[in-house]
Amino acid sequence: MAVALGRAAFLNSLYMLVGNGGQMIASLGVFLYLARVLSPADFGAMGMAAALVDLLTVFGRFGQVEALLQRGADEQSIRSTSFWLLMLIGIGNLLLIVALAEPMAYLTHASAVAPVMLVLAAVPLLQNVGQVNEAIMRHEMRYRGIAVRNVTATVTGAIVAAVLAMNGFGVFALAAQKLVFTIVYSLAVVVARPWLPSRNFVRAETRRLLTTGFDVTISNTLQMANGRIVDLCIGFFLGVVALGQTRVAWRLYDFSLQLVIAPLSSVSYSLFARVREQREAMQQAYLQYAEIISLIAAPIFVGVSLLSSDAMVLLAGRKWEGSASVLAMLTLSILASCMSLIFSPVMVAKGRTDIIRRQALLQTVANALLTVIAAQFSVTAVVVTYVLRMYAFAFLNVRYMNATLEVTWSVFVRRMRPIVLATIGLAACGIAVREALFASPVLVRIIAVSAVGALGYIAVIVAGDRAGIWPGYVAEFLSGARTLVRRQRPTPAEG
């Protein structure tokens, strides 16, 4: 396996993994506590309110971190221009959320939606306060600082939510968690990398910042919309209780996704930007990221799918047992998610943000049409449609990345083949053990399926290596790992 990552990129990926892991573990712990204390209707009301707020929060960033990373993160005048744009967008989003609170409550037949939206109205503005500071930190490869602040904000929000839930505040505990996280994270980033905007507003740079930011933010917003469209359709057609059941499963899926994949995906923006002019280095970085992310994520998510029913009852209680089938189906979309998460970093680095925008728009239109139709039947129909759409568009994303980077399909398939076959082996072993231990205690079954499945996954990779199907795969992987840890020198910006 060719090594395209320097030690700095590796360490910053590790920082993001540890930081994101700490954040997500703390978040998951509180989430599971809240799931035991609150009702599906509470989660459904929060889901409906967050559907709009989250969309406007992602839109409100307007891709300025990515635009500054592309050019201008080290120039005061461009930083200031970006900051004032972010403030204007944040104020507009706050006013829009306030105006839509009552209509949303009326349309969803859930009175709790309106006050929750009012509590969350300031989130898009508050998160924009530290966006330029974060862009500077990413430019300087200070991911350790970002990771620490992520954990701090998450733990603080989690404590507030738990206290409010214990004191009977219901759905407002969920709203407070999001609001407190945003406040603490923004303040922490500003303190960690002090920077103040000047009065400069460079009109010549405004067009570039808005153009690049628009392409990226449309992609990010539409990707967020794909999940939120599902929420809105389920809530509107099938009710907030059904939405609450779905949201719990989706939250556990997102937890796994963010814990395992997002750290590498985040660091890849900086890495790809640094090698965008080097054809071979860019190709190797792309292939290695696709391989590493899939190699790590595939066994974890297939294992979660196999154990979804047992895990849901054990972690959240029997009232959420109906969420297990949703979780099992969602986790099977993992390979599609892996490819889609590295699509934007690759295209931003190559200056093809127009493709990001076009793909995101097409995907959202397809998702909206298919989800509205599926929601007339059941939650299962909605989730199956979602997973199939994910794979269809992942294929298109890989096609665009291969063409842009001049990577042939044969090379791409050869790199991914061991992972796909090993995952099939894991699934076969896991299903066999699960059925054999059907009458055993839940915890025993979870441990046994996890252990045997992991051994099956490793065995297929090693057997394929020794049989000459993918010769040298294990040795190349171990060599690459040693090189990443020992041979590359860190950059001064690692801290």
UniProtKB/TrEMBL annotation:
Keyword Transmembrane: yes
Protein name per the record: Lipopolysaccharide biosynthesis protein
Membrane topology: Multi-pass membrane protein
Similarity annotation: Belongs to the polysaccharide synthase family.
Keywords: Cell membrane, Membrane, Transmembrane, Transmembrane helix
InterPro entries according to UniProt: Poly_Biosynth_Transport (IPR050833)
Sequence intervals crossing the membrane: 12-35, 41-62, 83-101, 107-126, 147-173, 179-196, 229-249, 255-273, 285-307, 327-348, 360-384, 390-412, 419-437, 443-463
Tagged with keyword Chaperone: no
Signal peptide limits: none
Subcellular location field: Cell membrane
PANTHER family: LIPOPOLYSACCHARIDE BIOSYNTHESIS PROTEIN WZXC, PST FAMILY PREDICTED COLANIC ACID TRANSPORTER
Annotated source species: Novosphingobium cyanobacteriorum
